[in-house]
Amino acid sequence: MNRIPGANPRWLAQTAMILSFALLGSCDIAEREQYENATQAIQGNNPTGQEQPSLALQFAEPEQVGMSGERLGRITDAMQELVDDGLLAGVVTMVARHNKIVHFESVGYRDIEAGAPMTNDAIFRIYSMTKPITGVALMMLYDEGKFRLSDPVEKYIPEFSNLRVAIGTAPNGELITEESEHRMTIRELMSHTGGLTYGLFSSSTVDDLYNEINVLDSQSILKSMIDKLSAIPLRQQPGSQFHYSVSVDVQGYLVEVLSGQTFAEFLEERLFEPLGMIDAGWHIPPEKINRFAQVYQYNDSGTLIPKEWESWPRDYYEPATFFSGGAGLVATAMDYMRFSQMVLDGGELDGERVLAPLTIDLMHRDQMPAGVAYTPGLGFGLDFAVVTDPVEADSVSTGEFYWGGAAGTWFWIDPVEDLVFVDMIQQFGGARPDVRSLSRRLTYAAIMEPNGL
């Protein structure tokens, strides 16, 4: 790893973030100065005398990076209005441009019933925002020459050899299957075009089988999931369509096969520690429970109530055994900002090289097979959705890429405007306001010096 001379990168990041977590709610000038002075002192710890890179994600005035502070304040005002209207419990929003944090705000409550306010260091279940992290982990092994994207998955997971494809159901209820036209590739696995499904977002006999045998059993291990999947036909031919699926959980197992470590060990040693993602992980230890955000849903009258199955897909207070690459992690807004800034910066953060720049570029390049579409205006890369037509996608920049989580968390990265946005909430249900679209519009409206014009 390309470590900063004379300093431990996790210590650098952790010290800076501990200071930054004092900025709960608004970030006033005195607090920013305290943060800047501390990070300058950290950077001065250089006994070798060699030049050090500037630490990423220091605080700056929005006007220093071509944004309007007054307009960024509209994001906070809009989120507060949603809280006041009883539509959101609490939310953390974060904006960085040109590697500087220019907005980091929390409003509402982490736990309404306890009267606990939302804070910038609250920990959230990020659900499917786990997926881009899993993709980066797998592509770290790609960088090491461990596989090709065109390799068949069965080359490394032999349990997937000779998978057949469901094409119908016989009168006796048995599945009718045919041979696959080609073997599922790792590229297809990473772009949800491999023929797998979730058992949640479509109705088919194959989906029913996923549910009957509990493919994503949170009490099991990833190898058990692979054994179950190997006994079920594919839902559709590999490469024939985009279909959201358990493929990212399979990627987590692939990391285990290729690295010789558990997926949890790999992430901690190779990603979380180097990037200073100090609260990212698979469960909440006792000393952090007071920062864990409550999950909410809406009752029939539209009132927010705690979700009964808030521990889904497992009890986050206990160490995990099933390291779900598709939905298993918890993290803070700062954790995810550090991950996202690394991606925007071409695979490096604070002197820690995670991926090669061209590998990062590959991940947010549309990977859809010829004749297969994701959705109008959007393509799909390697575990990221990608804006291919901003007009059709109701977006701004060609090449933006993003993803979100089931409880409303989301982020996007805009290489054109050199921008990262992270939003953290914990709410399920159709009554959840469209925070994603609202925050996008308000963020772009705050850019006074655009790069894309």
Question: Would you mind describing this structure in some detail?
Answer:
The structure is a single chain. This protein has 12 helices and 17 strands. It is an alpha+beta fold and 453 residues long. A hairpin with a 4-residue loop joins strand 16 and strand 17.
The Rg value, from CA coordinates, equals 22 Å
SSE string, helices as H and strands as E: HHEHEEEEHEEHHHHHEEEHEEHEEEEEH
Low-confidence region ranges: 1-49
Can you summarize the main beta sheet? 9 strands, mixed
Broad shape = globular
Relative helix content: 25-40%
Question: Quick one: how many beta strands?
Answer: 17
Q: What is the end-to-end distance?
A: 37 Å
The chain-level mean pLDDT equals 90
Structural class by SSE content: alpha+beta
- Beta-strand level of the residues, as a percent range? 15-25%
Total helices: the number is 12
Keywords:
nine-stranded mixed β-sheet, 17 strands, 15% strand, 453 residues, globular, 12 helices, single chain, two-stranded antiparallel ribbon, disordered N terminus, alpha+beta
